[in-house]
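note to self: dont lose this again. the chain is below, predicted strucutre after it. 125 aa total, dont forget to put it in the shared folder this time
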Amino acid sequence: MTENEISKIVVDKCYQIHIALGPGLLESVYEEILYHELKKENLKVERQKVLPVFWDKIKLELGFRADLIIENKVILELKSVAKIEPVHPKQLLTYLKITNLKLGLLINFNEALIKNGITRIVNSL
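---
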């Protein structure tokens, strides 16, 4: 399955969740439901996976925690905030570079229309 095929499934699931629940819930609620929905699609989904950062040949366990990683190909960074700040897309791009993955989706469920809350971030795709 390609990154784009995975992202289509994710966007569809986010749309269904947003239609059913709307904006305004905690990020953790959307994360739990999206995790459940993606698992129902028989996708390999890792939740809150701690990923190390390597610096000067040293493995630093103080890396970051990815919200969701799907099929070891796509990182999802979920938000439920009034406004996506400029640092959020940059943060996801850094995650992509550290993991050497090519596609990330920044998803803000706190939008009136979920399509306005989804941003694709690419790393050499």
